[in-house]
Amino acid sequence: MPEYQMTLTNRQSIVRDTMAFWFDANGARYEFRAGQHADFVSGSESDNSRTFSLARSPLDKDSIMIAIRMRKTAFKSELKTAALGTKFIVSRPRGSFTLHRDITRPAVFLAGGIGISPIRSILRSAIQEHLTHKLYLFYSNRKADDAAFIDSRGHVHCCPGPSVSCVS
Question: φ, ψ for residue 31 (rounded to 5)?
Fold first, then answer.
């Protein structure tokens, strides 16, 4: 299975107990479809890996991004404290949770918590590609303050415009 060495370039708290992490593919062509996921391995310990959904659009060529709820696990603690410039091994992208190609059928997404990550990738990609699908997002969290990628008006950060209907 192809692996890519990627560099941690940025991290940011996006809502309570949730952080986003950006990785540079160091010149490699890391191609994926919106909605896919990959394994991330820290350092040289192949047993210290986790699978995360890719939260950026494939058209955002400058880096890839993951967003995760921060729980007390060894991997997440290491990721949170790793120096920018730290290398991670990332698997090839996998998964079939992608937008269907039939523009006559609406796409309805149900998300809770950080499960919004792959959907954010799909919505952002659909808007960037000017796809004409009707897209509906139903998104729930225990508290409004825990809603990642949603602004105070209930709009998904990546998705301006009328093609996405968000119900939170």
Answer: -100, 135
Cα 98–chain centre separation: 13
Single pTM value for the model: 0.88
Question: 83 and 150: one domain?
Answer: no
Strands 164-167 and 107-112: unpaired
Same domain, 7 and 86: yes
Nearest Cα neighbor of 78 from 38, 2, 21, 30 is 21
Sign of CA dihedral 43, 44, 48, 49: positive
Query: Is residue 96 a part of any domain in this protein?
Result: no
Residue 47 belongs to a domain: yes
pLDDT in tens, 26-76: 999 999 999 999 999 987 555 678 999 999 999 988 799 999 999 988 889
Q: Give the residue numbers spanning the domain of 116.
A: 107-167
